[in-house]
Design brief:
By secondary structure, the chain is an alpha/beta fold. It folds into 2 domains: about 150 residues, 3-Layer(aba) Sandwich (Rossmann fold); about 190 residues, Dehydroquinate synthase-like - alpha domain (Dehydroquinate synthase-like, alpha domain, Up-down Bundle). About 50% of the residues lie in helices and about 10% in strands. Strand 4, helix 5 and strand 5 form a beta-alpha-beta unit. It is globular. The structure holds zinc ion. Zinc ion binds next to helix 12.
């Protein structure tokens, strides 16, 4: 697992004000060979309605590219797009949207071997540059499937600034989760007599540090958006280099997956769920959670389980289920007993915020 002979890196990572309006010039500079190739734009109807002008402009710049709105981020939908791409000799897929659109476009590009240009409209998690797509399989069931990372990533800071604040908070949560994920990765390596991939580890650590130690406390500022965009992309690349999600996903992610799987009625974004999971994970690992809690206060990230309708009993059960959602993944949860007394203490602490 630790010997990787190859990995891909995007040819272009542009984070600029109004980048969407001159995405064709950016692509011409970095990947001139795809200019003039048949292109398709994948998005969602509500985004097409909100950002009509920008999306029409992108479509026109890429030779009148057809704009397709996805319904759900499902495996079937990604395959249907890939089929269309292959049959119509489309060479380039541009994904414009949040996680659902980007995961669908990324997987469609992977199976159709099209060039994939990723253009996020929000920064809600680190999947934008990761070598995985999370897609619905049957009903509400979802699966994380390996795929190729984007060839180009273009972030328009103006788009992100105008995105709902909850999306950016979710992206912050996913970045901060690397703190406990990296601990779990080292623990797992020690248990199995292997090494962590040092470069991937360093990249994920720097991704975390850049946001955790950021001097800019205004998350709608351009400076912060730039730092967060790069942090999320670096997290994705760390996974690409490691050949697994380990640099960005530990016990705090198992907690989030337990919510998704066993408590679908709880409405909480991925990034907020992992942020909430990182506080107990920190305590289980014998680390102090004060720094994280202080950080979350600073940015107004609400980690109080009650806010999301999670009772003390549900909280304890979620941590019990977290042990089951990904068999074979060694984390701090494999090392400690399920202790309801401790979980009650942690729950109370998270409710009071001290
Ligand atoms: Zn995540």
């Amino acid at each position: 697992m630790n010997q990787h002979t190859r990995f891909n890196l995007p040819l272009c990572l542009t984070v600029e004000e109004d980048a969407f309006f001159h995405s064709d010039e950016i692509i011409k500079r970095y990947i001139p060979e795809i200019i003039g190739q048949k292109t398709i734009v994948i998005s969602e109807q509500f985004l097409i309605d909100i950002y009509r002008e920008k999306i029409m402009d992108i479509s026109a710049d890429f030779g009148g590219a057809e704009i397709v709105a996805i319904g759900r981020a499902s495996f079937d939908e990604a395959v249907a797009i890939a089929k269309k791409v292959c049959i119509e000799d489309i060479k380039v897929i541009i994904g414009i949207g949040g996680g659902r659109v980007l995961d669908t476009a990324k997987y469609a590009a992977h199976i159709s071997k099209a060039v994939y240009i990723c253009m996020p409209t929000s920064l809600s998690n680190d999947s934008l540059a990761s070598p995985f797509s999370v897609l619905e399989t049957e009903g509400n069931a979802r699966k994380t499937i390996a795929c190729k990372i984007p060839t180009a990533i273009i972030v328009d800071t103006n788009m992100i600034i105008n995105a709902p604040i909850g999306q950016t908070l979710s992206g912050i949560g996913d970045t901060i989760a690397k703190h406990t994920a990296l601990y779990d990765w080292k623990l797992s390596a020690a248990k199995t007599g292997t090494n962590v991939e040092d470069f991937a580890y360093a990249l994920a650590r720097m991704s975390y540090d850049s946001v955790y130690h950021c001097d800019e406390k205004d998350m709608t500022s351009r400076v912060f958006i730039r730092i967060l965009s790069r942090a999320l992309v670096m997290g994705g690349l760390a996974m690409e280099i490691a050949g697994s999600s380990r640099p960005c996903s530990g016990s705090e992610h198992l907690f989030a997956h337990a919510i998704e799987e066993y408590y679908p009625q709880i409405k909480i974004s991925h990034g907020l769920a992992v942020a909430m999971g990182s506080i107990p994970a920190c305590i289980f690992q014998g680390q102090t959670p004060e720094g994280l809690m202080q950080f979350f206060h600073t940015y107004g990230l609400d980690y109080n389980p009650r806010t999301y309708g999670i009772t003390e009993e549900m909280f304890a059960d979620m941590w019990e289920k977290a042990r089951l959602v990904r068999k074979g993944r060694i984390t701090i949860l494999s090392e400690i007993p399920h202790d309801k007394g401790q979980l009650k203490e942690i729950y109370d602490r998270m409710v009071t915020g001290i």
